[in-house]
Design goal:
- With 412 residues, the protein is mainly alpha-helical.
- Helix content is 83%, strand content 5%.
- The strands form two sheets. It has a three-stranded antiparallel beta sheet. A three-stranded antiparallel beta sheet has the order 4-5-6.
- β4 and β5 form a beta hairpin.
- The two termini are 104 Å apart.
């Protein structure tokens, strides 16, 4: 490895020397100092242009030589790199089968060790599950920490179940079986006592429900009779109310037929100054109501006759007023038409006079546009030429404006 690094360092040290045969860094710095300051003072500066061209040729030739040298050096480096890669691939092709064989042997033994470990864990788990099944068959329950009987009379932790010897576990299970059998016997006795009490309470409940059924039947019959009486009373009230509503409706129809209008907000029927309340409509006798309606009818007829006469007078007055307005409007429109015709005539005469006066000016303005179009001067500098070009463009805008205005004058 050390030898290869020394060879690389030697090759790297030779790179600047290879380029120094063409040009060194000091020479390039000198070119920068001399050539970057070169300027050509316009197209007439032939001497300055010649210096720039000669310097450009020299720099261009130097760049071409450097590129040619670079390609030659790089080709040698590529050949060297391919040889290095080829030797490495050859050695790796010989070593890889050895490496893969040794790795496969190591992995096989590790797998066998893992299988032995898993088998031991499986057997231990199966034994643990067998003990758990035994505890649960004895009626013990797991509370998240340990297996216990109801009332915590006996208990055993998870750690104890795992680590206890078979003899010790069997002894614990025998003791637990005694406790389990006692608890089972107590449970049977308790369930028997509870069943006897349950049957006694059920008999009492059935007797009470039978008595309540009798009371409910009596109550239902009473409620049925009361509902029937209430229904009959409601039917009588409904019929009476229906007759009253029909009577009220017929009176309302009569009032509406003579022109009166009902108002729920005020609670009355009315026509102009004639009024009768909803309450009076309901409470008045037939004789009294008929007399009032006859009086209302006479009053309404009189009111309508007077209103009709007033309406006819109003319409006649309105007709006369409209005739007067129409005459006045026609006269106004005639006067405005005559005035407009006179003004239009006067404006036309003034416009003709104005155009006549503008004709000499139009000729002069056309001469001005011809003059402006012909302006042209020769300038010696680019800056002056640009200024004249901008001015020429603005002059063309002035010429176009004058020509457009003359066209408008001539159209008129």
């Amino acid at each position: 490895m050390t030898k290869i690094m020394n060879v690389d360092e030697e090759m790297l040290a030779l790179i600047p020397l290879s380029y120094n045969k063409i040009v060194g860094e000091n020479e390039v710095a000198k070119m920068q100092s001399e050539f970057l300051s070169l300027k050509v003072d316009g197209i007439k500066d032939k001497a300055g242009l010649l210096k720039v061209e000669e310097a450009h040729k020299k720099v261009k030739s130097t760049c071409a030589d450097i590129e040619k040298t670079r390609k030659g050096l790089k080709e040698a480096a590529l050949v060297y790199g391919r040889e290095v890669d080829g030797q490495a691939k050859k050695l790796m092709a010989m070593l890889e089968p050895i490496r893969d064989h040794l790795g496969a042997e190591r992995d096989r033994i590790e797998k066998e060790k893992e299988e032995v470990k898993h088998e031991a864990e499986r057997k231990a788990q199966a034994e643990l599950q067998k003990r758990v099944d035994t505890l649960e068959s004895l009626g013990m329950a797991f509370n998240g920490v340990q297996w216990v009987f109801v009332g915590d009379s006996m208990s055993i932790t998870v750690q104890q179940v795992k680590e206890m010897s078979n003899i010790a576990f069997e002894h614990f299970c025998n003791e637990a079986k005694v406790v389990f059998e006692k608890l089972a016997a107590d449970k049977i006795e308790k369930e028997k006592t509870e069943q006897i009490e349950k049957e006694r309470l059920e008999r009492i409940k059935q007797e009470q429900e039978a008595e309540q059924a009798k009371l409910d039947a009596i109550k239902a019959e009473q409620e049925k009779q009361l509902a029937k009486i209430k229904q009959e009373q409601e039917e009588i009230e409904r019929q009476q109310k229906e007759l009253a509503q029909k009577k009220i409706k017929s009176r309302q129809v009569l009032l509406e037929s003579i022109g009166m209008i009902g108002s729920n907000a005020v609670g009355e029927y009315s026509f102009r100054e004639i009024h009768i309340s909803y309450q009076d409509i309901i409470e008045f006798s037939d004789e009294k109501f008929d007399k009032i309606v006859a009086a209302f009818l006479a009053q309404i007829k009189s009111i309508r006759q007077e209103e009709e006469r007033q309406e006819n007078d109003r319409k006649e007055a309105q007709r006369k007023e409209q005739e007067e307005k129409a005459k006045a409007q026609a006269q106004k429109e005639l006067d405005e038409k005559l005035a407009k015709e006179a003004k239009d005539k006067e404006d036309a005469e003034k416009e003709a006079q104005r155009l006549e006066l503008l004709k000499p000016d139009s000729a002069k303005l056309l001469e001005l546009t011809t003059y402006l179009k012909g302006i042209d001067i020769s300038l010696s500098t680019v800056e002056g030429a640009e200024i004249f070009k901008t001015a020429k463009h603005k002059i063309e805008g002035v010429v176009l404006y004058i020509e457009n205005e003359i066209k408008l004058i001539n159209k008129k």
